[in-house]
Protein 1
Amino acid sequence: MRRAQWKAASRAAIALTGVGALAAGMAMLLAAPAAAGTTLGASAAEQGRYFGAAVAANKLSDSAYTTILNREFNSVTPENEMKIDATEPQQGQFSFGAADQIVNHARSRGMSVRGHTLAWHSQQPGWMQNMSGTALRQAMLNHVTQVATHFRGQVVAWDVVNEAFADGGTGARRDSNLQRTGNDWIEAAFRAARAADPGAKLCYNDYNTDDWTHAKTQAVYTMVRDFKQRGVPIDCVGLQSHFNSGSPYPSNYRTTLSSFAALGVDVQITELDIEGASAATYRSVVQDCLAVARCNGITVWGIRDSDSWRASQTPLLFTSGGAKKPAYDAVLAALNNGSTPPPTTPPPTTPPPTTPPPGPGGCTATVSVNQWTGGFVATVRVTAGSSALNGWSVTITLPTGATVTNAWNVNRSGDTGTTRWTNVAYNGGVGAGQSTEFGFQANGTSTGLNPTCTTG
Ligand code: 9MR
């Protein structure tokens, strides 16, 4: 039953109660199958999305676990069973039993499967940990080929490469035996995966890539843009989104989702958990995904708190006893309410025939910078004075050696020296006293950025 029908049924039931037919009305509601609007998976499907969970094969015999899994979720990611140590414990000897068990459980119930993960520096079997150079490169490509071939047609999306970038401010690749086989190891893995399973979406997956201003996020963005430009087969980016006090949900998360999507890839939230399971934060994550057309699904990293890799932080949607937590209700409600309007200033209404003269209030521009060795991201806030803006222009003089490499929510002229930044179609109208933001990334240093704003 679609949501509209479900609502109609609810209304019908209420009307029936009004004429004394309470029992008949309630029976009609209770007899309904798991309808859109009543479970995470069904409600996400109403929005054209999936809602998944990481699943462990050894819990499929726990009926409390499978009751929730089968009722609520329409996508599954094996938590450990498709990793390299599980699927190729000895070189050339493949072992798919536990992964097949999860895949069969899911597919026989109409759930889709995300594959996790074909190439990773971690959870390598001993034989692979001890390899290097050409031999390791070949072994990795053979692994990708064999595993993607085994699951061909059964996995809708693969985390082809997992966690290949370093933490911290460098934006560099993570050092690993795979990285030391050559910087092209990631694209080689993607090409092998495409050849083995042309029907699966191929994703790059990482953590701490949720905050748009972080160097690691920008580094992944730059790689995905490069892959798209050069025709390396990539279809999606996975944001793990493990949020906790040290790595909180960032207010610019939606910007991150939409910026990746603008590269022409899907975005998937692949391992969501939130320390303390704040209902408000879970709601924000869902609303952010719904606001981005190419954010096509959310996976939580476990079902009950006791299933979590960090159970003591109680980060999931169900208690260890299997009860729905407030975060569950928030997620379901957010899914049922659909997308929220974007938070940016609405586009100007009926365009005036000519741009009116700038109001007396003028505008101001301020900048905040995230600098790392060799580069920075600048976020520029444009604020209208006492009159609304109908177009704005910001001038920024970059220090010697600084070169802009990309920008968002803005038109620019000039990459070095004196640069000029003007509004795009959807953020030129700014109400009196209101603000809008744009950003750019540059090589070099950000010393002395001093933006000035003019109207029109
Ligand atoms: O949840 C997984 C846990 O059971 C494993 O012990 C651990 C081993 O590395 O991996 C956990 O899952 C990780 C995922 O594969 C990749 N992103 C981080 C996840 C949490 O550590």
Protein 2
Amino acid sequence: MGTLWEGRLSGATTDALKALNDSLEIDKRLYREDILGSIAHVEMLVTVGLIEESDGALILDALKIAEEEISSGSFVFQAEDEDIHTALERRVTEIAGVAGARMHTGRSRNDQVVTDLRLWTLKSLDELALLVMSLQKSLIEQAKKAGETRLPGYTHLQQAQPVLLSHHLLAHAWALSRDFERIIETRSRTDVSPLGAGALAGSSLPIDPLMTSESLGFSETFKNSLDAVSDRDFVAEAIFVNALLGVHLSRIGEELVLWSSEEFGFVDIDDEYTTGSSMLPQKKNPDVAELARAKTGRIIGNLAGFLTVLKGLPLTYNKDLQEDKEPLFDSFDTNSLVLTALTGMLNSITFNEEKMSAAADKPFSMAIDLAEYLVHKGMPFREAHALIGGLVKTSIDDKKDFEKLVLENDNFGPEIEDFFKPEMAIRRRITPGSTGLEAVEVQKELIEKRLETQTSMISR
Ligand code: ARG
């Protein structure tokens, strides 16, 4: 078989065009989706009477053989195979003979490729959703085990107030819940069949796009053939979902890098998830956390790169769109690697409770509680803030013990001693969604419920 367009064009293409134009190495991994699409298409062609049942059967058998060949590694790709679609059509024609030449009736690679890509993206979104849930579960498990362990809460990376470790871990789990929701929402916009749009304008043959859409399991069918072959919003969205998820993973990664440093010493990462140094014998490096931080860069690059490809493209299909696959595949591949490694690492991490509470239990961390004590007694907050600020300043400038300065101050009664008991800072937080013990218990229940809802959303 020559090129697909040998009827129209005479000369052979140059090597340079071939090297630039061929996409087989990238789109090979769509072979299953391509075969599924062809099966649905051929069955429809038989049903509407466009091809004989016997020809249909020959094509379906050939597709089955080709699939087995590819999955077992015995499929021989040829130099002329431009992409997975041409490779499969060539092979089907070799096996099924003339019948194979009928497979592409009423179809273009333009609607074929985007059908494949939508099917691939749907499957990949589902897999990603499961990986996100595994990391959430790991965070929730660790939060449950953390009990009343405290660590400093930070703003500006300056110690601000003590918070529960469970509260901190759950903060990341909530961010992942939003990632999960975005995956599901993107899924619904991806779940539209473009098959039957043809090259761009539909067909003069009585093909049935609804039938193929249904047999492929899509929830909807395209409404506008021009939009069907040129729309890659779902690709951009899927990359964005991965990019923002990657941003969340990078923030977890960065904290674990910090926390595992000698200076913080909040966590011990299991040896399985660290590497040593080739030169410095004492080193234990948090590579997984660092790569979780770093890999996001390429996904953000994929997003910016792909939006730039789309920008300004006239309707409908343009070869530019062939550039959709690499950034899409890479974004899913990258996050799958990171999610799997990060989840394993979190499952086996050890939190150093003593170091955490030692860092959290500093008299200055009680400053806001002392100000709020004065508010309880009727002092306007601004006045209270200034008064406590003054005591902090005196303590630092005159090198005096802060607790002593507070106890000596007339504005405070003897009950104030209780305020310097570290665990009390947590117990005094009574508002919903706060780091208070009760609030965090409620939060744990809420996120477990959220997980149940999430589970029901993917097992649909
Ligand atoms: N390999 C192409 C792609 O990925 C398939 C569609 C080709 N369509 C065309 N009109 N040349 O976009």
